[in-house]
Write a structure and sequence with these properties.
- The complex is a heterodimer.
- By secondary structure, chain A is mainly beta.
- Chain A has one domain: SH3 type barrels (Roll), CATH 2.30.30.50.
- Chain A is globular and about 40 Å long.
- The two termini of chain A are 28 Å apart.
- In chain B, helix 5 packs across helix 6.
- Chain B is globular.
- Chain B folds into two domains: 41 residues, no CATH class; 143 residues, Nitrile Hydratase, Chain A (Alpha-Beta Complex), CATH 3.90.330.
- Helix content of chain B is 41%, strand content 10%.
- A two-stranded parallel sheet of chain B has the order 1-4. In chain B, strands 2-3 form a two-stranded parallel sheet.
- The chains are: A mainly beta, B mainly alpha.
- At the A-B interface, strand 3 of A face helix 9 and strand 3 of B.
- Strand 3 of chain A pairs parallel with strand 3 of chain B, so a sheet runs across the interface.
């Protein structure tokens, strides 16, 4: 479920669709930092997901939400 | 026999703790080796390490409680806290180092709760060390899927018309919940209000104490 390496985009959110809650600015890429490598700055976002989107029918309350910080290179824009 | 039973208990009635006669783990050995090398090369000193441990141990939820109470009595400070909680905490005089902090506000229709599913990220520089359960796999895995059930286990049964917002500290931000000010506290001083603010109310697994349950200062 998790690719090898130090990844900070949690597996339970892979492939899920959310809405950017706020932009946090640029931070050193943790996937490089973890190995003591030169880490370039990457844009970090707070993304809000509904519990229904994450857990489907198993959601305890579908309209409750989960916010997580996700780096730009783990996000792709969806067309509405 | 009662006598046999007592042999396993200390005079205070607690079982004796076993001596830790076990080999060091890999990471314990690594920590000792790194520390000794850094001291040997003059990068740090044992007294400096002890001072840093003291400084971390001195941080406690009382720091966060003071920030929350200030936000309850000062609308400008509250706006500042919600805009940048790290800057607002520093303005109150708390030395929180490079901490990036976001405050999330509980209201009549929203309840926030904090977790770190990947490890144990926690606003230590403001609140001190996290409780052990915060780092447990059970809390970390369950609160993102069934937050309402987890909160009920903490004694917090939220009505269906309150939205629960879970915040997973996956990267560089740390979080503090700004709990709602309890009713019946209009005449309390800022210090009295701070005494109502529990650690769990700032994680979101609890709410502040009611004023009549306030612990004596």
């Amino acid at each position: 479920m998790m690719p090898p390496g130090h990844i900070r985009a949690p597996a339970y959110l892979r492939g899920k669709t959310g809405v950017v809650e706020r932009r946090l600015g640029a931070f050193a890429n943790p996937e490089k930092l973890a190995y003591g490598l030169q880490a370039e700055k990457r844009d970090l976002y707070r993304v809000r997901f509904s519990m229904a989107e994450i857990w489907g029918a198993e959601a305890e309350a579908p309209d409750d939400t989960l916010d997580a910080e996700i780096y730009a290179h783990w996000l792709e824009q969806v067309q509405d | 026999m009662p006598h046999d039973h007592h042999e396993h208990l200390s005079p205070s009635g607690h079982p004796y703790r076993k001596d830790d006669d076990v080999p060091l783990t890999y990471w314990q050995t690594m920590e000792i080796a790194m520390r000794e090398l850094l001291i040997e090369k003059g990068e740090t000193a044992a007294a400096e390490i002890a001072r840093q441990i003291d400084a971390m141990d001195a941080r406690s939820p009382a720091n966060g409680a003071a920030v929350v109470a200030r936000a309850w009595v000062d609308a400008d400070f509250k706006a500042r806290l919600l805009a940048d909680a790290a800057e607002a905490s520093r303005a109150m005089g708390f030395d929180i180092g490079p901490l990036h902090l976001i405050a999330v506000e509980n209201t009549r229709d929203t309840h926030n709760v904090i977790v770190c599913t990947l490890c144990s990220c926690y606003p230590r520089n403001l609140l001190g060390l996290p409780p052990d359960w915060y780092k447990s796999r059970a809390y970390r895995s369950r609160v993102v899927k069934t937050p309402r059930a987890v909160l009920r286990e903490f004694g917090l049964d939220l009505p269906a018309d309150v939205t629960v917002r879970v915040h997973d500290s996956t990267a560089d931000m740390r979080y503090i919940v700004l709990p709602a000010r309890p009713p019946g506290t209009e005449n309390l001083t800022e210090a009295e209000l701070a005494a109502l603010v529990t650690r769990d109310s700032m994680i979101g697994t609890g709410v502040p104490r009611a004023p009549d349950l306030r612990q004596p200062a």
